[in-house]
């Protein structure tokens, strides 16, 4: 495996771990973002820059997310 491929694989693993960690943190506050995931298109660059896709959520989930962020900011 080339150094570039290894670095890309490491970035992908890091992004997937961060996504899972975010999902777990949100779940602890009662928030589930069904579309949460790593954006596969973001791996198309020569030097991958993985993006976490937060996806869409309904209005109730949006208000819960706002409340959780407000609590965390205090």
Structure report:
Helices cover 55% and strands 8% of the residues. The chain has 74 residues and is mainly α. The longest helix is centred in the N-terminal third of the chain and has 26 residues, at 3-28. The model has no long low-confidence stretch (mean pLDDT 89).
Topology:
Blueprint: H1 3-28, E1 37-39, E2 51-53, H2 59-73
Antiparallel strand pairs: 1-2
Biggest β-sheet: strands ordered side by side in the sheet: 1-2
Mean pLDDT: 89
Shape: elongated
Supply the helix-strand structural class: mainly alpha
Low-confidence residue ranges: none
Q: List the secondary-structure elements in sequence, H or E.
A: HEEH
First-last Cα distance: 47 Å
Q: In this structure, how is the largest beta sheet organized?
A: 2 strands, antiparallel
Any key phrases for this structure?
74 residues; mainly alpha; two-stranded antiparallel sheet; 2 helices; 2 strands; 8% strand; elongated
Give a nutshell description of this structure:
By secondary structure, this protein is mainly alpha-helical.
């Amino acid at each position: 495996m080339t150094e570039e491929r290894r670095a890309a694989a490491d970035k992908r693993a890091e992004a997937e771990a961060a996504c899972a960690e975010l999902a777990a943190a949100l779940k602890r506050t009662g928030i589930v973002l069904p579309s949460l995931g790593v954006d596969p298109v973001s791996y198309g660059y020569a030097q991958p820059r993985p993006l976490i896709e937060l996806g869409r959520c309904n209005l109730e989930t949006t208000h819960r997310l706002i409340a959780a962020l407000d609590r965390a900011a205090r």
